Amino acid sequence: MTSSCPSPEPPVDGIHPFHLEDEQIRALALYSLDYKYTGAPKEPRERQGLGLDYRARMMVVPAENFEPLINKLKEIYTEP
Prior knowledge:
Helices cover 28% and strands 15% of the residues. The protein has helices at 22-28, 63-77, and strands at 31-36, 55-60. A two-stranded antiparallel sheet has the order 1-2.
């Protein structure tokens, strides 16, 4: 899957989205919450962890924003 979306600026809070579509979801979310895991293992990290802190983001998207979100994701991530 390719993206026609430009590379985003580094986030002010230092939390980088794990999935490219996170920023599109956040734009249509009613609420968004970022948090660190309190029980994440310190070592050894998985290969994919790249030494990053374990964090999570929870987003609540209202039902009326779901179809516009899907359309936006199709627009951005559908190959030409």
